[in-house]
Write a structure and sequence with these properties.
Chain lengths: 255, 222
């Protein structure tokens, strides 16, 4: 159902380009700046001590994970509407990178929870809805990686991807109600209120820039890799068909 | 569309009635889950009665999954998928018909499980109106979401394992909502339950809309 065959479409021919090399360099530099400000220059928090430094990577990771989900849903919508393979692969790249950052969010969150709350896990609204987000993303990836034809995988995954953001919103809402109707407002709130020191705010800002650059770099590369994979697959099929045809011709000539 | 829906629902329910799979296998499984909960949570400690709403809806979800798997395995045999596609029925109608058939089976399961918890867990039943409305809305939400994800997983070798992974996270809000609404009804504070019914209504509408528009493209593919 793809309107253009892959050979006619202009796409990336390699996973690297000058723009992404610059992007990668900037991502590395900003990660270095983040380490400098996050671990060395910013002061420890009055109530949380050194543990607050996890925030500089935890909060930006959560943000870009949601960004990846939006990419998946938008890509899925455009694929279903226009049958554009390009957007389908954007959706796939978005979901994979979002999964990575959701895992980072959960792991850093749990590591942050241990010193501040004394346990790795509490049934807090945000933790629970992030865990559900991970499961929803794993469901999408399971469909996208089905052992089936590209068409079948892509279309079914697109339906799941289309519903990803609505589902995330509903799950968040329900988990929020589930917790707030039964216990006091979330424990996390005290880590993120508006009384953040100037240098800490700057470190968090650096974290946002560094994680966003890494996110962008990963998305572009994952997209290019998926594109090239699909190219190889369809080229391999063409080659195999040509070979079988050649065999048939040989068979006709022989007595 | 509505006419086609009734045709498909009638066909599915007739199939179930004649094959007796739901009656002979899914319904006993549902009761089995109730008994297993009693083994897991000692019946003497009063935990069962306290946890009734949650256990009830988990049992509904698990046995509903079986009914859903069944609803799509009857379509995958003997090239039925192609036959359905060639039948000229409106895809939206096929979707709604499947939702209706699954919904009717779920309601039957819920009645059975309701009697089960009332008898086995000796839970006193109060707040009838909220209980009934919650059951109706949750059933529509489970049937609609289950049918949509059922067709996503249908016809694949991995469908038995894929459907629960796709469906259960999506139905988590329905589980939370229906459990809280039942707790409110049984606890004598029905006003706390109604917002949850609203949330489940939103989910039901979302999945019916998504199914009506998404079923066509999903049926088209080879």
């Amino acid at each position: 159902m793809i309107s253009q065959t892959p050979t006619e479409v202009t796409g990336p021919t390699s996973t690297s380009s000058r723009v992404t090399r610059v992007l990668g360099f900037l991502a590395l530099v900003s990660l270095g700046v983040l380490v400098l400000f996050g671990l060395i220059l910013s002061p420890p928090d009055a109530s949380q001590g050194e543990a607050v430094r996890i925030m500089y990577i935890h909060v930006p990771s959560a943000t870009v994970a949601y960004l990846g989900c939006f990419l998946t849903t938008i890509g899925s919508i455009v694929y279903l509407w226009r049958k554009s393979q390009w957007w389908e692969l954007v959706a796939y790249a978005g979901a994979e990178v979002a999964t990575l950052f959701t895992v980072i969010t959960l792991v850093t969150g749990m590591l942050w929870g241990r010193p501040t709350w004394g346990v790795y896990w509490v049934w807090d609204a945000r933790l629970t809805s992030t865990a559900m987000l991970l499961l929803l993303l794993l469901g999408y990836l399971a469909v996208r990686r089905l052992p089936a034809d590209y068409e079948v995988r892509a279309k079914r995954a697109a339906i799941v991807g289309l519903l990803l953001v609505p589902n995330v919103m509903i799950v968040r809402k329900s988990v929020d109600w589930w917790r707030t109707l039964h216990q006091k407002p979330t424990l996390l709130a005290n880590g993120l209120d508006s009384k953040i020191e100037g240098l800490m705010l700057f470190s968090l800002f650096t974290g946002f820039i560094a994680i966003s650059l890494v996110f962008g770099w990963l998305i572009v590369h994952r997209f290019r890799l998926a594109w090239l994979e699909e190219q190889v697959e369809s080229e391999g099929l063409d080659l195999a068909i040509a070979e079988r045809r050649a065999e048939a011709l040989v068979g006709e000539v022989a007595p | 569309m509505i006419h086609d829906a009734f045709l498909v629902a009638g066909k599915d329910l007739r199939l179930e009635w004649r094959s007796r799979v739901a009656l002979n296998q899914v319904a006993p499984f549902a009761l089995l889950v109730l008994v297993l909960f009693a083994f897991a949570l000692d019946p003497d400690r009063g935990l069962l009665e306290k946890a009734t709403p949650g256990l009830y809806w988990v049992a509904v979800l698990f046995s509903g999954l079986l009914a859903l798997q069944r609803s799509f395995s009857i379509e995958s045999a003997d090239g039925n998928r192609d036959a359905l596609r060639l039948s000229g029925l409106d895809p939206a109608g096929i979707f709604l018909g499947k939702v209706m058939a699954v919904g009717v089976q779920l309601l039957a399961l819920e009645i059975l499980l309701g009697i089960g918890v009332a008898v086995l867990y000796t839970t006193p039943i109060t707040g009838w109106i909220l209980l009934l409305v919650t059951a109706m809305v949750a059933t529509v939400a489970i049937a609609a979401a289950g049918t949509l994800y059922g067709v996503v997983a249908a016809g694949l070798r991995v469908r038995e394992t894929l459907l629960p992974l796709l469906l259960l996270p999506v139905l988590a809000p329905v589980l939370i909502g229906s459990t809280r609404a039942f707790e409110a009804a049984l606890g004598g504070t029905p006003s706390e339950g109604w917002p949850w019914v609203g949330l489940m209504g939103v989910i039901a509408v979302l999945y019916i809309v998504a199914g009506v528009f998404g079923f066509g493209p999903l049926m088209e593919e080879s």
